[in-house]
Specification:
The protein has about 400 residues and is of the alpha/beta class. Helix content is about 35%, strand content about 20%. The structure holds zinc ion.
Length: about 400
């Protein structure tokens, strides 16, 4: 394959996580053992430095019916509210009639906050069930994939366009980016939110690598993509969401001066060689070390007769469990709030999901797969901690956060 951004064929494999099932599809009992496996490799483009997967699971398989609901966790909804208020206060406080388009709008959590601020809102969501939920909640949502053709069909332009955590999903990257330019008013702002590869590498949060995430950006690399389509990021900051995400503000090229804080972050990327292949290779060495350390920890705990449950059944947890080879010989079950996963099994390692309310006794150890909610988890489980239940975090983000 060629680079998804610059089309160069000069790609080098930097991380090999083996073959893995599509991690977002938790299995019904009759599906256990029948799930297909796909290569999960991170490659680095020697021309433009963008890290990406070299294999694409078809988007119709991945996004037809995903079960992730953004409204489920409180801190995520709080984050979306913050983003809406910030964008409105900074760019549209004096505008009377204002509009926002959300790409990958999920259950409408983000748009609800804009609606509360008086915006005309439109969501585009590829999952049928999720789009239906949003429409039922009064958030107008198209059940489609966003691309240039759809942007043209809409035939309207927006003051704001938001895309949270979809910009690395996109199979038709260039068509989508072009569609954003098409649908953005001349003075409009595109708010892009994406996992920051620099943070992923610093935290060894390699579980963020999975088939849905086709691309892994730093500031330098996403700028390059945006420039190809006449867009430019002019400001950004790092938020603790998902263990380290960039909230970036983008507009048509040449309209805004780059902010001082964005320039500083770009300088930090250069100083820390965040876009060098050597940094990616070092990241892979640390992943392999982490596997050894975690297996040693889990084996010792099991030999000491301790019970271990997984805390949360996030999709990213499957990358880790599958790469480590951790199944029911170590972890009895994955304890989850989201009742949509009730009675299902984790893809690959086949660990049963148990809903939190149904649990009689806590384990000796919670192996925390939803580590990005560390603060919230420790706060909500003080009673268990007091009773001596250990919470083990395989990943410890630098800025423990939401
Ligand atoms: Zn490239």
């Amino acid at each position: 394959m060629n680079c998804r951004v610059c089309d160069s064929s000069n790609l080098d494999r930097v991380v090999d996580l083996g073959s893995q099932p599509w991690c977002n599809h938790f299995l019904r009992p009759e599906e256990v053992g029948t799930e297909p496996f796909y290569p999960l490799h991170l490659v680095y483009c020697l021309n433009c430095a963008t890290a990406q997967l070299d294999y694409t699971v078809k988007k119709e398989i991945m996004f037809g019916d995903h079960t992730y609901l953004s409204g489920v966790t409180k801190s995520l909804s709080g984050h979306f509210r913050h983003v809406a208020m910030e964008a409105d206060a900074r760019f549209l406080s004096t505008t009377q009639v204002k509009s926002v388009l959300d790409i990958g709008s999920n259950d409408g959590t983000q748009l609800k906050h804009f609606q509360d601020l008086g915006y005309g809102v439109l969501g585009v969501e590829s999952s049928k069930g999720t789009a239906a939920l949003a429409n039922a909640a009064g958030i107008p949502t198209l059940n489609e994939f966003f691309d240039l053709a759809l942007a043209r069909r809409l035939a309207r332009k927006f003051d704001l366009i938001n895309a949270a955590g979809v910009f690395f999903h996109l199979e038709e990257l260039h068509s989508v980016t072009e569609g954003i330019r098409e649908a953005l008013k001349d003075d409009g702002v595109f708010v892009v939110q994406f996992l920051y590869m620099k943070s992923i590498m610093e935290n060894v949060a390699f579980d963020q690598i999975y088939h849905e995430h086709l691309l892994y950006y730093n500031l330098q690399t996403i700028q390059r993509l945006l420039e190809l389509h006449g867009l430019a990021m002019f400001d950004c900051y790092l938020a603790p969401i998902h263990g380290g995400s960039i909230i970036g503000f983008v507009t048509h090229a040449g309209r805004q001066e780059p902010s001082a804080r964005m320039q500083e972050m770009l300088c930090a990327e250069a100083a820390e060689r965040s876009n060098d292949i050597a940094t990616y290779r070092a990241f892979y060495r640390r992943i392999r070390q982490m596997k050894q350390d975690n297996l040693a920890y889990l084996s010792a705990a099991r030999q000491a007769g301790k019970t271990i449950f997984g805390f949360g059944a996030p999709v990213k947890g499957n990358t880790m469990l599958n790469y480590f080879g951790v199944g029911t010989d170590f972890i009895d079950c994955l304890v989850e709030k989201n009742t949509m996963r009730k009675g299902l099994y984790s893809p690959g390692m086949h660990i049963p999901v148990v809903i939190e309310d149904e649990l009689n006794e806590p384990p000796n150890i919670y192996y925390v797969l939803a580590w990005n909610f560390k603060t919230e988890i420790l706060k909500n489980n003080r009673q268990l901690l007091d009773r001596g239940v250990e919470f083990y975090f395989p990943v410890n983000p630098k800025e423990a956060g939401e």
